[in-house]
């Protein structure tokens, strides 16, 4: 009897060990897959148009996770969408297609996005970001003033490093179609006029990232970061309101 009891105890312990090992293996496997998906997203052009907790050009990853939560076909649907690109689900701005990414990599990336959950950290970050938005008012002369949501100058007529960087990028790349110093060109419109006619900052960034294939404008996603395009926008905006003249601005 004691032998049978001892064997039963051994079997119980063995089963418990196997079960625990299996749980740890599944957990470690899921964690590794999540880390792989996050790394693939980081190394791709995804972060040019998306952020984890707020909209950039495309929707926040957390918003995507929330919309597709509990849908069994979500992974396959989103893998196909990322591969083919296009618009319609989140607005009119088209997402750049990614035909060269493997199904395995796309699956890992999508699974990581769908695994994201809102946290107090992200909520606090977003609230702080919104609360920290400032207004900068500049005198244009003749009794006219303009208020912007970014600074143009650090002192006197010396522009900020962001505006200066925007000029560098514009006159290195964008000038080919839009003209040097944002004066307009033969191949593309004067972006100062576009901003004067109501193009918003988000529309500017979205257009630059997604491109306009039908009009011959390439997508800059993956080449420029969102920060780069924001700097270009600030330079062009400063030009459009008359705060920055043509030529190299005084700055760093």
Outline the structure in words:
The structure is a single chain. With 252 residues, the chain is mainly alpha-helical. It has two domains: 2-126, Cytochrome Bc1 Complex, Chain D, domain 2 (Orthogonal Bundle), CATH 1.10.760; 134-240, Orthogonal Bundle (Cytochrome Bc1 Complex, Chain D, domain 2), CATH 1.10.760.10. The chain is built from ten helices and four strands, in the order H-H-H-H-H-H-E-E-E-E-H-H-H-H. The chain has helices at 2-43, 46-49, 61-67, 74-84, 103-114, 120-131, 161-178, 191-196, 201-210, 226-240, and strands at 136-141, 144-148, 153-155, 158-159. The chain has a two-stranded antiparallel ribbon. Helix 1 (2-43) packs across helix 5, helix 7 packs across helix 10 (226-240) and helix 9 packs across helix 10 (226-240). The protein is elongated. The termini are far apart. 25% of the residues are buried. The model is unreliable at 18-30 and 123-131 (pLDDT under 50).
> Structural class of the secondary structure composition?
mainly alpha
Describe the global form.
elongated
Spatial strand arrangement across the major sheet:
1-2
Output the CATH topology of the largest domain.
Cytochrome Bc1 Complex, Chain D, domain 2
Known CATH architecture of the largest domain = Orthogonal Bundle
Rg, rounded, reads 26 Å
- State the separation between the terminal residues, measured CA to CA: 88 Å
What does the average pLDDT come to? 82
Secondary-structure element order, N to C: HHHHHHEEEEHHHH
